[in-house]
Amino acid sequence: MAKLSDLIVFDSLTIHKIVVSPKRVYAVYTIVKNDGTELSNMLIYTYNVKLFDKKDPDDLNLASLMLAQVAMNYGLFCKKIIFDGLYDSHDKRLIIDMIENTCREIYVNKLLSKNEFLKSPIDKLKVEKKKKYTAAKILFINTNNWVSKKDKVVESPDKNKYAILSSGGKDSLLSYGILNEHFEAHPVYVNESGRHWYTAYNAYHQFQKSEKNTAKVWCNSDRIFNWMLRHMPFIKENFQNIRSDIYPIRLWTVAVFLFGVLPIARKRNIKNIIIGNEYDTTLTLNYNGITHYAALYDQSKYFDNAFSRFYKKKGWNHFQFSLLRSLSELMIEKILIKRYPELQKHQVSCHSAHKKGERMMPCANCEKCRRIVAMLRALSEDPKNCGYTEEQIKKCLSSLETQKVKQIGSDAQHLYHMLLQNKILPRTAELERMSRNNPEIMSLRFDNQRSCMEDLPEYVRKPLFKILNKYSSGPVKRKDRKWLSYKITEKELSLPYRMTIENERK
Fold first, then answer.
1. 270-274 and 319-321 as β-strands: parallel, antiparallel, unpaired?
2. Per-domain boundaries in the chain
3. Which of 13, 135, 274, 384 would you call most buried, defined as having the most Cβ atoms within 10 angstroms of its Cβ?
4. Whole-prediction pTM value?
């Protein structure tokens, strides 16, 4: 049976030769295999406006951090990882801690779980409970002899401004719609090289015409991820041809995009960094004594709060949070289509979108498409609004009888319940078994772990919940394993945001 040490296939990974220019930053990624073979590639971020000054130590530091993020997926697979750039003590702590967390997440959720990309015998790894999962020695060097500023400036960005990590998905579209009603919204699209951009294409091109604060970042991180996979001998050579809803290895992904957004947020003096994540993305689980976050750490509130603390230590003073933590996926879709149908029209939630004319269209073959069509029909809405044809809608609904949707159990049960109640699906014994009325799914959920009022800055709460409550069954709170209705009080709305109180909690 294979063991963890069999995964160490690189002698070293070095992130070096960082170049900073006004509209572009890049670094060379060099891997040395265990047989001494050396290979290099380049990670690039490109912008269409001037954001960087190569003589400014703060910009050199930010570029170093941006270009480090992709490498943080490979702590299990290298003897050493060398970061050559300008890093302070807070940066080093973040990188070391997040590499360790990512190693554990990848080990449990990619290597010990079913993964069609793995070759034998790595697909049957022995379970090893360890104090530390990072195999690589993490080294920080500074061959350019860059020098940090002696006096750190504590910044005061504008709390009325919000940078939204944007795509063509329902979460970022809804986040934009809500914020655009009350605040200054800045949708920032990250164009990751490859087909991932297809899902954002429709929304970006519409926003470019209608929203003056729209920005775009180009990044070739997807090419680096695939390049690394090609040199991992335990990954199947045809990995790019395998149809799957998961990535083969990587789990530190959101931060790659997030750090692409930060130069724009900092240039525009934006305080709030918004990532659209729902109730079900904050999980802590246990696998054979190994705690983990179900491969969702970078979508959890723990991730947001860790980065808000990091920004505070850096003196940047951004707040990072999601507006949607109290909502189920079904509620997000409901509010988007009911309140912002013109935004929902640009939604592309699909693993294999394709171009038709001047728009990207959904495939109707993947799990995401099945889920979106199912939710829209359960809500008595027409999937044609976002590009599905009548034939595709019938195909997706038909497949729901034999293929499940990728949702938490209670969410999926309630979705099937609504589909049966609305006579969208036939009442077969199998579908009856899969359905259950879970009314909390259509409520605003609050508890002590996943969704707390204190995880939102005070100034966003009233306008946010005024909108959300209009479309929900009302607020509910978890008590003694039951969801109980309650009323949000003025006292609760004025509770201090946990990132501003001295005794911070996760």
1. parallel
2. 363-441
3. 274
4. 0.95
